[in-house]
Amino acid sequence: MEMRILGRLTAADALPLYSWVAIGGAVVTILGFLAIIGTITWLGKWRYVWTEWLTSLDHKRIGILYVMLALVMLLRGFVDAIMMRAQQAFALNSGGYLPPEHFDQIFSSHGTIMVFFMAMPFLTGLINIIVPQQIGARDVAFPFMNSVSLWLTAAGAGLVLISLVVGRFSTAGWTGYPPYSGAGYNPGVGVDYWIWAIQVSGIGSTLSGINFIVTILKRRAPGMKLMRMPLFCWTTLASSILMVFAFPALTVTTALLALDRIFDMHFFTNTDGGNLMNYINLFWIWGHPEVYILILPAFGIYSGVVSTFAAKRLFGYKSLVYATMAIALLSFTVWLHHFFTMGASAGVNAFFGVATMVIAVPTGVKVFDWLMTLFRGRITFHPSMLWTLGFIVTFTIGGMTGVLLALPPADYLMHNSTFLVAHFHNMLIPGALFGYLAGYMYWFPKAFGFTLDERWGKRAFWCWISGFYLAFMPLYMLGFMGMARRMERYDVAAWQPPLVIAALGAAVILAGIACLVIQLIASIRTRERRRDLTGDPWDGRTLEWLTASPPAPYNFAVLPQVRDIDALHEMKRRGAVYERPERYEDILLPRNTGAGVLIGGFAFVFGFSAVWHIWWAAAAALLALLAAAAARSFCDRTEFRLSASEIQQIEERRLRQLAGEEAL
Amino acid sequence: MDGCTPIRAPILHPAGPVALAERDLLFTAVFIMLVVLIPVFVMTFLFAWRYRASGGKGRYTPNWFYSGKIDALIWLVPAAIVVILACLLWSETHRLDPYRQLNAGTRPLEVEAVAQDWKWLFIYPEHGIASVNELAFPAGRPLSLKITSDTVMNSFFIPALGGQIYAMAGMQTRLNLLADRSGCFRGRNMQYSGDGFPDQHFAARALSAEAFEDWVAKARKSPERLDATSYRALAAPSRDHPVSYYSGVAPRLFDSIIAKYAGQHPE
Amino acid sequence: MSIAGKDTAVLPEADVYEQRALGFWLYLMSDAIIFALLFATYLVMVGNTAGGPGGGDLFSLSHTFGETLLLLTSSLTFGLASVALDSGNRRQLLGWLAVTFALGLGFVAMELREFHGLIALGAGPERSGFLSAFFTLVGTHGLHVSAGLVFILVMMAQVAVKGLSRPVASRLERLGLFWHFLDIVWIGIFSAVYLPGILQ
């Protein structure tokens, strides 16, 4: 075989000429990229973007970038979704408008994007912005590592996006089961894009997990005992522990698959002693905890929202904490329920089925604790509250179908069907995404200093929830009708009407997304009259509402003294809020650095080169990455000192603002 | 295409005792869980209405945040339901173990099923015949399947008759089914396996004893025989493979398909 | 509301290093899971020789013993480097780090020789599931040792350039954790891979 400078990258293989729709996708991706570059250039804001955002180590800035990445990827993932729904609405006894090799890429990229590049960055972003403020800290424990995590995640997302333009994405689904995903059955670059995108971003997630655990355990303000932390901090802690202990399993799984594909090894091949069942076990040892990595932070958001907008202390705080930790622990004991149909003995299946159902107990406890918080509260229907109420009802249905799937004999009927698809969307859309959107609307003023338009927020909610029911209830029904998931076309006429309804549901969700976009634009245009001058627009109960909106770089000029759960509420009752301290002191803050961007960039080059077997470039990128990390370790001046007088100026301005506000 | 008019919702209207028991378990579990579900729905809407800030009639007790009794209740009720469901799960999982032979007073019919890209081969060792994309068997007589794959992982499923099981190369899984009336049911691969996956379905025909004999006789008249060469041709990827029959099958073909992968190093 | 000391704007320096130590422990635990899963995979695949050679045909006790000796000694010399760090003796510290580096390099060289020999025998990682798992488990450890060698070089440079500053000392402590961790993993490999293979 001749050595080629560009590995297996040739124009013929690389360009998406196999379908007009694929060419369109590539063009849109390129235009979107050029539009962003062009806008920044036209506004002359490159220096601002670089110094204030890309190189920032401020946890709030990093968090905002994470959420922006998540929202962009939500759009991309949703385009995949609505294309699938449209295809299946038409594809009775016909090929629809998507050829199989394109449809199969779309369901693979939809799942991959929504899990790794929408949900993960969304929750990581919200945690980044809020958790340090909730525990009364000035930043995360490792601000530089935080930046590295962000740029590794972005590099992974970049690999998925570029697969639309150069080459193809995987057709093996977001789970990448071998031997189908092996080189024998799938020799192209698609699976490699999938592998390297999640490998690169997965390392970022592991690092984020470490960062959040240390932040929560070591950076709490005086008096902030563990059992006084807001629930969002607890669920973040649980979720981060899962990230640290579960993501290595994904790293191993995808690395072994890569070794099979690149070096012709035999971990998961049909032949030569490979064992595909080992892949499926390893994948779900990560995959099941991952469900809780996504859902637990949303549970924390709901807890905060319920308490704030019911104007009442959370019911059963301890129960909620124990339930969270129980769920985290149990999530490692149930992975086999993803493959009851593999032929394990009845005893093994029954054991994992029971373990799965046990998780329903702490989850049920949580639902009732939220309901009891509403009980005898004074409920304001802010959009965040609507997302929460919608979640409680809808998620309970998903929980029920989950218990059904935990019964192995019932699972034999429903596995791999659209019932399963409906079930996990029923968990993840209300259970995770609604929570993130509730958090987005709840905390937006904290991040940007002005509130989001509530009317458009409510419209978005009603579109999303009705669209959800329209899109997924028919899929439950189709499961009873025996429809398999991932079908590019079908010949059963009875399936078409429910599929058309599901496509309409997707269209309603599209309207919901449009409402979100309009909400954002309208709120930015009317921001002057939506300014949050107090930093506390919802009569908040937890410490993030003590800081200014947006917070000063150091969050708290003087670290708060915590005496109870709902620390801010307790201070307000005591009348001890917004007090002028006797004196200010200098604060050390992380100094900006471009090293994170650089490391992410090298990771992207490495991933891209590994996909296309451009080994010299992959090796060079890896060496450059190591060199950048080593060079960074030589730098001791990683912080700068904000002087007491500067802090005094910032704080005095805020106190004057607060006084003016109170005079109104 | 396979001449079957599929049942509209085979899971809800099963045609055999296995699928029926599995469906009934599903229904029972739904009813048990309504004990939790209905209160959740009622409480959500009731509380949202009663305690709304804009004119709700409910009392406001901002400092009430704990009650030992309620706390105990919300742990114990879900726990009790899970205990009940777990008992049900344990016994039903053992009773409905797909490997367990069904007892219907008659000897089961043994069939060996092989998943290929993108079709199903059924070998009848008792009769020395084979068919592609059509699985015929007598209604009322248990059907005992040995399943493997000669390609990527597949999942064998006849929704009207009972749950599915994976088909994996180099391995054999088992499935025991029974149709208690004659009819033509749709079966398919449920595990995505590539471009031809949507068309990878077959007709599962539960026939009367006489009709089954006729079917066997028809297969025996086929000019085609399944030996190493014709098997290789059949196993090559193909879509929309027509129903076809083989009047003879090389001995131990099924075992050799498994052995091809099981730890052997091809020369 | 301020309590002296608690309100200081700057975190006490000790806390910063404590946090880094905790963070590094968490990293080691997640790395330990990577090895645990590779061990599990090896045990699942140890019989999947696909008609090719098994551990008994390939492993050499004397070679493995040599590797073990090098790595265990390097742990000892790293311990001596830590003692030198505590007593603030820069020359000794550099000396022991250099010895540790040499021993580690010897280990990697021996491992590469073993791999090279196996591949020459036709027992490379593409030969069977068993050999894939073997090369990957042992090779992942070897890659970690190599990363540790780079880490040692970087730290020697830092000690030489910066002296025994607090950040440098804390990095050396973490390097020590890493190096001893790799020792423990190797003992696992020796007992779960080589010993059963040879005793077969």
UniProtKB/TrEMBL annotation, chain A:
Listed PANTHER family: CYTOCHROME BO(3) UBIQUINOL OXIDASE SUBUNIT 1 (PTHR10422:SF35), CYTOCHROME C OXIDASE SUBUNIT 1 (PTHR10422)
Similarity comment: family membership: Belongs to the heme-copper respiratory oxidase family.
Cytochrome oxidase subunit I profile domain: residues covered: 44-563
Domain of life according to the entry: Bacteria
Record keywords, A-Z: Cell membrane, Copper, Electron transport, Heme, Iron, Membrane, Metal-binding, Respiratory chain, Transmembrane, Transmembrane helix, Transport
Topology within the bilayer: Multi-pass membrane protein
Residue spans crossing the bilayer: 20-43, 64-86, 106-130, 150-173, 193-217, 229-259, 291-311, 320-340, 346-365, 386-407, 427-448, 460-479, 499-522, 588-608, 614-635
Matching Pfam families: COX1
UniProt KW Transmembrane keyword: yes
Protein name in the entry: Cbb3-type cytochrome c oxidase subunit I
UniProt subcellular location: Cell membrane
SUPFAM superfamilies to which the protein is assigned, alphabetical: Cytochrome c oxidase subunit I-like (SSF81442)
Record flagged with keyword Secreted: no
Species of the source: Microbulbifer taiwanensis
UniProtKB/TrEMBL annotation, chain B:
Pfam families: COX_ARM
The keyword Transcription belongs to this UniProt entry's keyword annotation: no
Domain Cytochrome oxidase subunit II transmembrane region profile, first and last residues per copy: 3-100
Gene that encodes the chain: cyoA
Source species: Microbulbifer taiwanensis
UniProt cross-references to SUPFAM superfamilies, sorted A to Z: Cupredoxins, Cytochrome c oxidase subunit II-like, transmembrane region
Family, as annotated: Belongs to the cytochrome c oxidase subunit 2 family.
Domain of life of the native organism: Bacteria
Stated name of the protein: Ubiquinol oxidase subunit 2
Predominant location category: membrane
Subcellular location: Cell membrane
InterPro entries hit by this protein: CcO_II, CcO_II-like_C, COX_ARM, Cupredoxin, CuRO_UO_II, Cyt_c_oxidase_su2_TM_dom, Cyt_c_oxidase_su2_TM_sf, Cyt_o_ubiquinol_oxidase_su2
Membrane-crossing segments per the record: 25-49, 70-91
UniProt keyword terms in alphabetical order: Cell membrane, Electron transport, Lipoprotein, Membrane, Oxidoreductase, Palmitate, Respiratory chain, Signal, Transmembrane, Transmembrane helix, Transport
Residues annotated as domain Cytochrome oxidase subunit II copper A binding: 106-218
PROSITE patterns linked: COX2_CUA, COX2_TM
Membrane topology per record: Multi-pass membrane protein
From TrEMBL, chain C:
Transmembrane segments: 24-45, 65-86, 93-110, 130-156, 177-199
Pfam families xref list: COX3 (PF00510)
Listed InterPro entries: Cyt_c/ubiquinol_Oxase_su3 (IPR024791), Cyt_c_oxidase-like_su3 (IPR000298), Cyt_c_oxidase_su3-like_sf (IPR035973), Cyt_c_oxidase_su3_a-hlx (IPR013833), Cyt_c_ubiqinol_oxidase_su3 (IPR014206), Ubiquinol_oxase_su3_dom (IPR033946)
Keyword Disulfide bond among UniProt keywords: no
Keywords, alphabetical: Cell membrane, Electron transport, Membrane, Oxidoreductase, Transmembrane, Transmembrane helix, Transport
UniProt-annotated location(s): Cell membrane
Topology term for the membrane: Multi-pass membrane protein
UniProt keyword Transmembrane helix present: yes
Domain of life, per lineage: Bacteria
Limits of the Heme-copper oxidase subunit III family profile domain: 22-198
Family: Belongs to the cytochrome c oxidase subunit 3 family.
Assembly, per entry: Heterooctamer of two A chains, two B chains, two C chains and two D chains.
Record function comment: Cytochrome bo(3) ubiquinol terminal oxidase is the component of the aerobic respiratory chain of E.coli that predominates when cells are grown at high aeration. Has proton pump activity across the membrane in addition to electron transfer, pumping 2 protons/electron.
Protein name as catalogued: Cytochrome bo(3) ubiquinol oxidase subunit 3
